[in-house]
Amino acid sequence: MADTLRIVTCNIRNGRAFDGMDSWPFRWRRLVDYLCSLDADVLALQEAYTFQIRTISRGLDGHQVIGDGRNRRRKSEHVPVLIRRDRIEVLDSSTLWLSDTPNMPGSRQPGARFPRIATTATLHDRTTGHTFTLANTHLDASDDGRRLRSAELLADWSSDWTTPVLVGDLNASIEAPELSPLLAVGFRDTCPSDAPGTNHDFTGRADGPRIDHVLVGPPWSVSAATVAIRDGRLPTDHWAVVVDLRLR
């Protein structure tokens, strides 16, 4: 429906990883086809390098790309957001580092192997007239303490966001204690509790953990939410989460 907004989040798997016949050169066409089929107004990606973003943005004609890389030079992995230009206007955007110095490029939490970031944007939906804030992130994969600290930072920042939507690979199920700061400030899961898993490690299975999420604040209502599973050769090692939202 015209007044629903489709948000999609998908971890596209680091294009520099060696995954045999699932490596980037062998699967990029499948991934572009998969993402196109999801028909997102806002598409959030994780584990994306510039060459992957370039390929995907060419395939998804009509989308604006926002977001910087996570290292000191704003290069390396991104958590970009692709915005449908004919519907949504980007009012502002920024990259924040999930550290105690969020505006310092390349900063990281103690003990972290890599910096972690959030791409944030204030977006105006021309169809409905609503303005909202979207944040896309990818939390630490190896340490629940660092995930907890990141969730605390995001929860704190969200107090300045307009009707927020938080998406990404949080590397934890929604019931995990480290995500509790997000729930405490009013975010809620958009998927039903029995939704399929998202992380399948190139097996295609749907019974793994659901660690990819679209979380919303109180003003949003959910028209539909699903995990986008498809048959055949696999586009990436996570299934995408697809959510249709309305502002009450």
List the helices and strands and how they pair.
Blueprint: E1 5-11, H1 24-38, E2 42-46, H2 50-59, E3 63-66, E4 81-84, E5 88-97, E6 117-125, E7 131-138, H3 144-157, E8 165-169, H4 180-184, E9 188-189, E10 212-216, E11 220-228, E12 240-247
Parallel strand pairs: 1-2, 7-8
Antiparallel strand pairs: 1-12, 2-4, 3-4, 5-6, 6-7, 8-10, 9-10, 11-12
Outline of this structure?
The chain is an alpha+beta fold and 248 residues long.
Structural overview:
- By secondary structure, the protein is of the alpha+beta class.
- It is 18% helix and 31% strand.
- The protein is built from four helices and twelve strands, in the order E-H-E-H-E-E-E-E-E-H-E-H-E-E-E-E.
- The strands form two sheets. A six-stranded mixed β-sheet has the order 3-4-2-1-12-11, with no helix packed on it. A six-stranded mixed β-sheet has the order 5-6-7-8-10-9, with no helix packed on it.
- Strand 1, helix 1 and strand 2 form a beta-alpha-beta unit.
- The radius of gyration is 17 Å and the shape is globular.
- 43% of the residues are buried.
Keywords:
alpha+beta, Deoxyribonuclease I, Chain A, 18% helix, globular
> What top-tier CATH class fits best?
Alpha Beta
Mean pLDDT: 97
Helix content: 10-25%
Rg from C-alpha positions? 17 Å
> In whole angstroms, how far apart are the ends?
15 Å
Read across the widest sheet, the strand sequence of neighbours is: 3-4-2-1-12-11
Q: Tell the overall outline.
A: globular
- Summing up helix and strand content along with how strands pair, one would put the structural category as alpha+beta
Mind summarizing the main beta sheet?
6 strands, mixed
Task: Spell out the CATH superfamily.
Answer: Endonuclease/exonuclease/phosphatase
CATH topology: Deoxyribonuclease I, Chain A
Count of β-strands:
12
At CATH level 2, the architecture is 4-Layer Sandwich
**Percentage beta strand:** 25-35%
Number of structural units classed as domains = 1
Order of helices and strands: EHEHEEEEEHEHEEEE
Indicate the low-confidence ranges by residue numbers: none
**Count of alpha/pi helices:** 4
